[in-house]
Design a protein that fits this description.
The protein is built from six helices and nine strands. The protein is of the alpha/beta class. It has two domains: about 70 residues, Distorted Sandwich (Spo0b-associated Gtp-binding Protein, Chain: A); about 190 residues, Rossmann fold (3-Layer(aba) Sandwich), CATH 3.40.50. The strands form two sheets. It has a six-stranded mixed sheet, sandwiched between helices. A hairpin with a 2-residue loop joins strand 5 and strand 6. It binds guanosine-5'-triphosphate (GTP) and magnesium ion. Magnesium ion binds next to helix 1. Belongs to the TRAFAC class OBG-HflX-like GTPase superfamily. OBG GTPase family. It comes from marine metagenome. This is OBG-type G domain-containing protein.
């Protein structure tokens, strides 16, 4: 029996939890339980006196194994932020993904993947995940369940809605999201991040960016102000992402994270 699974599926032994294979490549195959040897069929018992034998042998039973399958998406860039930060709007602007967008929190319920074509021949894959809120590690909002999908990315875009008139809450949200990342996985919280202040078309965002950019740069040296409505700042952001992805990554991630040549997608 052949079971087709999406690339990025981890196959584990359900009893021991042992990782059997990480299916990172498209069309990769793995035999988790071998079939038993077959018995001899009627034809093998045919002789000069027995032309149509009824005798046969049953085969041996095959291996049995209970598997636990876990999908961790393969993407180069993860887009994170509080609900309504503009994550899905950005991925729909820069890629072929067409996620649902709305002005209420938790519009996105499952991750979206999009291929971003940067220039002739180079592209990368971005993942937009549901919004994270304070207390996600205790299961609040949609909880941490989707953070595993950005564990294999090399770069995080941390989007913050700058159109909020409450300037303090902008900084607070930054710190809360970092705390949530850390409580999920220290490795994830140490991935390089680009801070992206969103909704630049809103005068309030411009004002907040003017007042807060010095504090933001202290927290993270790479800060961009963008608008997914007008396109402001997006091209520069994409070049920065390309630069970030071109840097050497840890060896395990290097195997799966790279620029794709267009014909491979
Ligand atoms: N003015 C303005 N509005 C924006 C911009 N980007 C997103 N929005 C609006 O902000 C709201 C939330 O956008 P989404 O892209 O759904 O936000 P999200 O971060 O994906 O939200 P969740 O899926 O709930 O986590 C929508 O009403 C968008 O139209 C922008 O650049 N400018
Ligand atoms: Mg969304």
């Amino acid at each position: 029996m052949v079971i087709c699974l999406p690339p990025g599926t981890l196959v584990k032994d359900a009893n021991s939890g042992e990782l059997l294979v990480d299916l990172k490549q498209s069309h990769q195959q793995f035999t988790s339980a071998g079939g038993g040897n077959g018995g001899r069929g009627n034809l093998r018992f045919k002789s000069s006196i027995q032309r149509a034998p009824r005798r046969f042998e049953t085969g041996w039973p095959g291996e049995k194994r209970t598997l636990f399958l876990e999908l961790k998406l393969l993407a180069d860039v993860g887009i994170i932020g509080f609900p309504n930060a503009g994550k899905s709007t950005l991925i729909s602007k820069i890629s072929n993904a067409r996620p649902k967008i709305a002005d209420y929190p938790f519009t996105t319920l499952v991750p979206n993947l999009g291929v971003v074509r940067l220039e002739e021949g180079t592209s990368f894959v971005a993942a937009d995940i549901p919004g994270i809120i304070e207390g996600a590690h205790e299961g609040k909002g949609l909880g941490h369940q989707f953070l595993k999908h950005i564990e294999r990315t090399r770069l995080l875009l941390h989007l913050i809605d700058f159109s909020d008139p409450d300037r303090e809450s902008i900084l607070n949200r930054y710190h809360k999201l970092q705390a949530e990342l850390k409580s999920f996985s220290p490795a994830l919280s140490q991935k390089p991040q680009i801070l992206v202040a969103t909704k630049a078309d809103d005068p309030q965002s411009q004002k907040n960016f003017h007042d807060l950019s010095a504090s933001m740069v202290k927290l993270n040296p790479v800060v961009f102000l963008i608008s997914s409505l007008t396109g402001e700042g997006i091209q520069n952001l994409l070049w920065k992402i390309k630069e970030g992805l071109s840097k050497e990554g840890p060896s395990e991630e290097k195997q799966i994270t790279r620029f794709y040549r267009e014909q491979e997608i």
